[in-house]
Design a protein that fits this description.
- The protein is mostly helical.
- It has helices spanning about 5-30, 50-70, 75-105, 110-130; strands at about 45, 50.
- It has a two-stranded antiparallel ribbon.
Length: about 140
């Protein structure tokens, strides 16, 4: 489907969008007193002990490939709107119904809204990074 270079760029776009857009917005919300958790968590993540933010960015990179596969043929406003909506919804659904139950995290209204907001910013970040990497919709 994609050339290896495009797959690499999509992964990097998701990775970078996690570090800059997702975590950047989380830090802004933290500084505003809206969320208790600060961004760029360097605590070790089991089982490999890599920093949690690196683990999150890795998964963001994999999601970046999926998101790019879904939006790369769109152009104009629909490209950006789709990156926002799919970026917000798809990773959030997996978090709510797969990751949270595995980790024993109760789903709350705050987590629902926060996930949609942070992941929507991530989705826009992926689309912007792909544009900056020379990958046009």
């Amino acid at each position: 489907m994609f050339k290896p270079k495009t797959l690499l760029f999509a992964f990097l776009a998701g990775f970078v969008a996690t570090l800059l857009f997702h975590q950047g917005l989380l830090q802004l919300l933290h500084l505003a007193g809206k969320v208790p958790t600060a961004a760029w968590n360097m605590d070790p993540s089991p089982p490999l002990g890599v920093p949690k933010v690196v683990s999150l960015a890795f998964w963001g990179g994999l999601w970046g490939i999926i998101l790019w596969a879904l939006i790369h043929k769109r152009s104009g406003a629909s490209h950006w709107l789709l990156s926002l909506v799919l970026g917000a919804v798809l990773p959030s659904l997996v978090a709510w119904f797969v990751v949270f139950p595995i980790k024993g995290i109760a789903l709350t209204g705050t987590l629902i809204g926060g996930a949609l907001l942070l992941n929507g910013a991530w989705g826009l970040g992926v689309a912007l990074c792909m544009r900056l990497f020379g990958q046009r919709a």
